[in-house]
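Quick entry between incubations.
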Amino acid sequence: MTLQDRVHAAIRADILAGRFRPGQRLKIRDLAASLDTSPMPVRAALQRLVAEGALEAEALRSVRVPALSRAGLENLLPVRLALEGLAAEAAGARIDAAGIATLTAGVARMDQALGAHDFAAYLTENSQFHLTLYRAAGNPVLLRMIEQLWLQAGPAFTWLVTSDDLSPRLNSFHRDCLAALADGDGRAARAAIEADLRYFGQHLLMLLDLDPAHRNA
Amino acid sequence: MTLQDRVHAAIRADILAGRFRPGQRLKIRDLAASLDTSPMPVRAALQRLVAEGALEAEALRSVRVPALSRAGLENLLPVRLALEGLAAEAAGARIDAAGIATLTAGVARMDQALGAHDFAAYLTENSQFHLTLYRAAGNPVLLRMIEQLWLQAGPAFTWLVTSDDLSPRLNSFHRDCLAALADGDGRAARAAIEADLRYFGQHLLMLLDLDPAHRNA
DNA sequence: ATTTCTTATCTGTGATCACAGAATGCGTCA
DNA sequence: TGACGCATTCTGTGATCACAGATAAGAAAT
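Done. Structure below.
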């Protein structure tokens, strides 16, 4: 693995973990210093993240972490419904017992995180659950697109959600999905995932309106 | 616009026009020489195209134009149906008279290309028609994803389709779509686009099986 | 005190160089 | 004649330097 791959992974993780403020400008030399490399691999990593939609660039300016906006979230939701719904339905026809066991364990860990009001752990487990499910669809082209969507949606999760937003209802959709998968009912699995995304998406929009700091853009 | 943007656009156009053979390795210094620049902007452009899914990279090796494969095309089709179907339906609710006029002109040009058995012109116009339609959906996130899909599908079009594959039926789906848009019927527009993609997709798979040169991978 | 113009600094882009791993060609041996 | 091994060449990666456009800071004028 090359150095720019490691740098890319590091910055990508920082974005997903919300370690950069939405709207923040990322400077090549600063990141290079903090990662203890030359500017070169950082330059490549940032350009790659821009191409993946995780950052936005204007010509001859520093790249920016996209600001949260109602329009952005509203545009994202239907695409997520279409792609993640498709993946869930395909997974329903292909997932095996081992896969269902993995997902069941994930749901248990999400219950635990909800009980402990640990929203960081919940978000991590939630992401694991969804991506494991979509991987089971066995379509690399589809999986790649979905990962790009999550990268774009990541900052919204970590910057808007707090412990107060965790409700037991969140995990009920995952349970519905799991039941559908056990029945081999792809259509029901899709419906459960779509309900999950809709519920969470509406919640994010509400949080955005409540939070004056992010109401801009 | 920076130099690497121009280089990116140039190579991207070469890929879409089929000026690179599927499976071909692209070397930084060769492209730099033919584009009369230093290797630097070429390096950046190639990395960007890899991130966009237009090229594939293995670590420490030259990037490759993806080889055509049945699995690749089969994975692409359901994603295209989901995303382009969504965009067509959204466009049905938002497109205005000027947009419909633009699309109508495009259909006329496709008829002309079909009559002249000019498959290059047909493919260009076809791409214009679809992207114009999807732009009318007014969802930048969605449009971005669809453009990535077309970039991945491009080589399959230009390398498998010949004049002998042009049939008047191809344009009938576009006409159906146009009629649906005029009625403001998004559902019907989606159905027409999906039928178009399915028909053309099946045709590509058949051509792939017929062509021994591309049956590999 | 505020605005504006000028200057100094910052920052991304492009070029050149050095290096390491991969690929290729050639010679040797069975 | 064919296969193996070595050496040369090729090729991507990473670092350093030069430059131009943008940004920010400071000084002068109203």
